[in-house]
């Protein structure tokens, strides 16, 4: 009888560990919004600006502690859609949320290292979804990453 209880306890512990490791693997990133997350959200049919504000509001907050020598804040948040710099966050309002593969936030230091001093206020990088046509999918082609 002791052997069967030991097996039961071992199975329960293994099941609990499997559940927590799966939960950790699915944990959402603070600085990334994926297509799957957008499509599961209530914001999937709205514009991208509203979706980001609802899902990760910190992406639009002013960076803490970043000031220039004159005491003013650094540049505004840089917005890149498919590697093309946009004039401002308003460009996100023109983009449907369900057409996006990934939204990634870069803090001011990362953004300045990646894009130069014009992005020293942080950056939001958007990768749009590119659907593959039937002929392309039959030929084994995949959408660009």
Structure description:
With 145 residues, this protein is α+β, with helices and mostly antiparallel strands. It is 39% helix and 16% strand. The protein is built from six helices and five strands. A five-stranded mixed β-sheet has the order 1-4-5-2-3. Residues 20-26 have low confidence and may be disordered.
Layout: helices, strands, pairs:
Layout: H1 2-26, E1 32-34, H2 35-40, H3 48-55, E2 78-81, E3 84-86, H4 90-93, E4 100-106, H5 108-115, E5 123-128, H6 134-138
Parallel strand pairs: 2-5
Antiparallel strand pairs: 1-4, 2-3, 4-5
Main β-sheet, in a few words?
A: 5 strands, mixed
- Unreliable spans are 20-26
User: Please, what is the average pLDDT?
Assistant: 80
Question: What is the β-strand count?
Answer: 5
Radius of gyration: 21 Å
**Approximate helicity band:** 25-40%
